[in-house]
Amino acid sequence: MMSTQTLDYLDGIAHLPEGGMLILQHVSWEDYEQILAELGDAPNVRVNYDQGRLEIIAPLSEHEAYAETIQEMIRVVTRERRLKLEARGSATLKLRPQAQGAEPDGCFYIHHAAAIIGKRRLDLSVDPPPDIVVEIDVTNESLTKFPVYAALIIGQTSTIRFRRPAGHSLFSALL
Q: What burial class does residue 20 get, using C-beta atoms within 10 Å of its C-beta: 0-12 exposed, 13-18 middle, 19+ buried?
């Protein structure tokens, strides 16, 4: 049975606007797990947990477009270098003993691709962590996730920041 507190958390998440962030303190691991179960594979939020601190982000649609572009770039590079690649998108990466978990904007297996291909769900207590994790920053900084990725022993974490200068379109800002 779901706790009243978990129901309150889910209500807050349901009202989170695109580009918004909700930070909750003193959240139990059990509540974190329940929230993940209730949200399922919802593409409209990213859930991060660091020893009781729960951070929920509702990415902007432009954020998702950047993530897809970066993922395609990684696919092209690995294909050109004839490397195996297993892309897992924003898979939930978590370890209970460390009480930490994160959902990156993209995660990729290259060195351990063969061990992961065909697996339905990742379990970092037995599966290797991704070789590459990508974070896209448009409205929110992802620096709070870095300690989580370090604890999960992620090989490479890249943050890509997209900022619009005042008075410029995004297209001209990227030129």
A: middle
Closest CA to 33 of 90, 84, 96: 96
End-to-end Cα separation, the chain, in angstroms: 52
pLDDT in tens, 61-91: 777 788 888 889 999 999 999 999 999 988 8
- For residue 64, the domain's CATH number is 3.90.1570
Strands 156-161 and 132-137: parallel
For the chain, the domain total comes to 1
pTM confidence score = 0.79
State the Cα–Cα distance between residues 14 and 62, nearest whole angstrom: 20
The residue among 57, 18, 12 whose CA lies nearest residue 31 is 12
Mean pLDDT of all residues in 149-154: 77
Residue 168 reports pLDDT greater than 50: no
Domain of 66 in residue numbering reads as: 4-174
Short-list 45, 40, 37, CA closest to 14: 45
